[in-house]
Design goal:
The chain is mostly helical and 116 residues long. It contains 3 helices and 2 strands. A two-stranded antiparallel sheet has the order 1-2. The radius of gyration is 33 Å and the shape is elongated. The model has no long low-confidence stretch (mean pLDDT 89).
Length: 116
Amino acid sequence: MFRRILALLIGFPLGIILVAIAVSNRQPVDLILDPFRPETPALSVELPFYIYLMAALVLGVILGGVATWMGQSRWRQTARSQGRRAARWQAEADRLAREREAAAETADQQLAISSR
């Protein structure tokens, strides 16, 4: 519940700010992709300015997520290897428990036979 309230407290004002930016920056702007002839560009895109702002925001979030994911690869690899190790130890413990139970049953049967 706290997370939902916190998300609303952050997300709602952020949404209002983004809408205000979009409304105030809707005039078209040329993005010239030809550094050699800026007067007569071969490659240019004309979009409202807020599209460039939103694209930069989305690109930053994606690049930040990729960088974080790559930075945590060491920890994910450690977790995988520790998980495999834990599974091996659990299998060993289960095997030993089965052997102990089998030995106890054998000892009980021998006790029952010898007490007759």
